[in-house]
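Hey, can you fold this one?
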Amino acid sequence: MSQYVRQATSADLPAIMAIIDQAKQALAAEKIPQWQGAYPQASDLQADIDAHEAWLLIVDQKIAGTATLKTVPDPNYAQIYQGSWVPTPASGYTSIHRIAIAGGYHGAHLGDHFFSQLFTLSYQQGFREVRIDTHASNQRMQHIITKAGFDYRGIVYMANDPADQRLAYQIKL
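Sure. Predicted structure:
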C-alpha cells in the first residue's frame, strides 16, 4: 500500500468536503457536538487551499484524509486555561486543524502516518512545535492525538466563546 501526503488543490475540494461530511456524520452518531453546525464549510477549506495549508493523505492513489497545517500562530491558542503551553521557540509553531480520515479507512491507523507526515512538513519548514485541539467529548481523537505523542496542555476556547471549549495539546519536535 503506497501512502504519501501532498498539498490539496481546488480540484480536490469536492473530495475534501465528502471526507468532512463523513466526519460530521460520525461525530453526530457519537453525539459529539463538534462540527455539527456549518463549520467547516467549503469556503473554510478553499481558504486553506488558497493559503497552501491544506494537505491530503493519499493511499493507493486515492484521497484518504485531509488536514490543515497552519504556520501562523492560532489566536485561539493565545490564552490557555487550567494548564500552560511549554514555552514556544522563536520559530513559532504549526497547528493542525480540520483533520479527518475518509470513512472507508477507519480502523486502518492512517492517522498515525498522517500525523507523522505533518510533523515532517512542520520540521522541514523550520518549526519545532505542533499544537492541536479537540472537543472534550471526542475520545477517539484524544486517543489518536496522545498516541501520536502530543501532551495535554490545558483548555482553549474557540473565538473566546465559553460554550466552545477544546482540550489543547502540544508536541515538541
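The domain at 3-172 is CATH 3.40.630.30 (Aminopeptidase). Let me know if you want another pass with a different chain boundary.
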